[in-house]
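@channel anyone free to eyeball this complex?
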Amino acid sequence: MPRLWSQTIATHRDAVREAVLDATAALVAEHGLTGVTMSQIAKDVGIGRATLYKYFPDVEAILRAWHERQIDEHLTQLLQIRDQTESAARRLEAVLAAYAEATSHHGRHDGDLAGMLHSGEHVAAAHKRLREFVQELVVDAAAAGAVRQDVPADELTLYCLHALAAAMDLHDPAALGRLIQTILTGLRPSDLA
Amino acid sequence: MPRLWSQTIATHRDAVREAVLDATAALVAEHGLTGVTMSQIAKDVGIGRATLYKYFPDVEAILRAWHERQIDEHLTQLLQIRDQTESAARRLEAVLAAYAEATSHHGRHDGDLAGMLHSGEHVAAAHKRLREFVQELVVDAAAAGAVRQDVPADELTLYCLHALAAAMDLHDPAALGRLIQTILTGLRPSDLA
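replying in thread with the prediction:
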């Protein structure tokens, strides 16, 4: 097989895979996790069911791939926000705000399927990366004098990430803003707080 | 059946039930949720397996009853702490500290069984009661000027309870103390913070 042809096939496969995940994202947004079926995805992508099964063995595999892509997109977005923001204190605030926003949209998935998605290794690895990422921001902000130094950075990171989970129960942007301000108040050094 | 006799039976049944839950608590503490079996409980309580089955149909039912008792004991303990503490600000701090302590000991249960226990209605009801209980303390402390008033009490309560969940990952009492202080700093009015 000439190289170009195999590349064409690979590109095509990637495009179909992405289209499947896009259709899945739209179905989850409209009907929730349980509203996703093989037939509906095949229909929305415009391919036959038999073709879809060549890409994914079942709905669970599709949801898992969709969820992994979601997580990767969120982490990439947080990295971009960090790199676009100037001071250490503002970087921390901007990243926490973006994470709260994503958590709020994420909401609580329905039952068993959500448990299945969240029990994956990918989620555990992403959580570890997120924790390390936020901890770096906390360390930098502490070095810049914007975060308290009487509590170790790893404990402050746990505090931030757990407190941010409150965003799941908040859907009003103003409430999210108040949550971030409350969390940041907790982080501040006592002489600045 | 004379009244006294039926009372004696009821008291006996309660005593056996409590002994079963005590044995379960000891087994969970030593071997985790998955280390609890009908045979071992019967042996530890000193009753036959057939008798045990007259009280509980299976291990799942026993674990559920044990978990409900645990939750009720924790809530009762929090109420006692509230009633023994003088000022509104100290009451909030003492209750949050006790809750963090309980959460830290609780730790993360192992997998599926924990999911089963936590999905129960009893847990949802207890969580609602806890939220209402903490919110009252937040409202009182805000009225006393010890908690910020620029964020609604229900949002501050969500913040507290989520941030307190960080205690699950902390096992050192000093770290728990720092978590509570960080959370309380977040709650403080800006002119006092």
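from a first look: The radius of gyration of chain B is 20 Å.
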